[in-house]
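BUG: 3D viewer hangs when loading the predicted structure for this chain

Environment: internal workstation, default settings.
Expected: structure renders.
Actual: progress bar stalls at 90%.

Input used:
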Amino acid sequence: METTELLEIVARGEDSRHQFKEDATNATALAAEIVAFANSGGGQVFIGVANDGTIRAHDAADVDRLNQLIANAASNSVRPPINPLTENVPASTGVVIVVTVPDGLSKPYMDNNGAIWVKSGSDKRRVTAREEMQRMFQSAQLVHGDDVSVPGTSIADIDLNYFRWFFKTRFDQELEEQDLSLGQVLSNMRILGNDLLTVTGVLLFAKDPRAFLPVFHVKAVCYPGNDIHATTYLDSADIFGRIQTQFEESLGFVLRNLRREQSGQGVNTTGEVEIPKIVLEELLANALIHRDYFVSAPVRIFVFDDRVEIISPGHLPNNLTVANIRSGNSNIRNPILTSYATKVLPYRGLGTGILRALKAYSAIDFVDDQDGNLFRAIIRRRTPTS
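Structure tokens produced before the viewer hung:
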């Protein structure tokens, strides 16, 4: 870094990527700054710059001391250890040490006390909310929302007839042919642990998922015009039940609120739905399977005059981008649920659903809302022909 670049950054002040420190003497405090950057996309610590932007550059002895402190903090006070880069940038009165912390690959990072820090504007904050911690561990693929045990559940909550049908369909064997108890079968399928059903077990096979996971449902509304109204709507539904039921009823809701076009067919035909059914199937299946089950919120469906929006809790995981998914890339957030979903939903996985939807109907936009922690699929409706 050149001195001119240093001065330009200092002149702009602190932000989420640049932290100023006049001096550093405590490895634990410095480790917290390093942890926050590593958990939040990376950034730089400028040692030798006061909070007000005044440069308090260090001499050679200080430079040696500070570089040793930085090395100790990063290796001994950060878990797992990381390797920041340091650069000694000359200033008018000495040297400013610039510590560059890369975006971490093994999140979440912690300090020696087990505290998880993230950036919050130009400052940092400690992560204390359970939901946020779970999402960070999920991002590191250390835990998955579909694999979490659901309190209050047991084998007795399984719809046994439905599960028998699924088992036969999935494994081409009768459940009763297994030389195992029902509990062992469920445990082997990773939908039962410590005598509790997992989120996957409840969503796929419970008699009444709403009793245990009431927020994991679909909320659908059809509005007049192109905006959300506080009190006026044309149709609405709160859709509960197993994931197969949620899919089927959500698909039915959207289809009944779309136009059908004659498209050259006879007057006695019902006509073709304005948005191909396969598009709705693929996007609804994706919303239900790939949503973030650590976020306590429903999938939302909004039908407007000019578009249909399908909104999933949770932004794209693990550095996926909209460009990635448009190219067929995928990253499985809920691996157990995904592995069984092919037998109850028209879902084939492997990132192909988005490609099939786009091939059938190109007027689809995707918005990955990191701040709002949601993913939005927007299907543009065609202008009706006169």
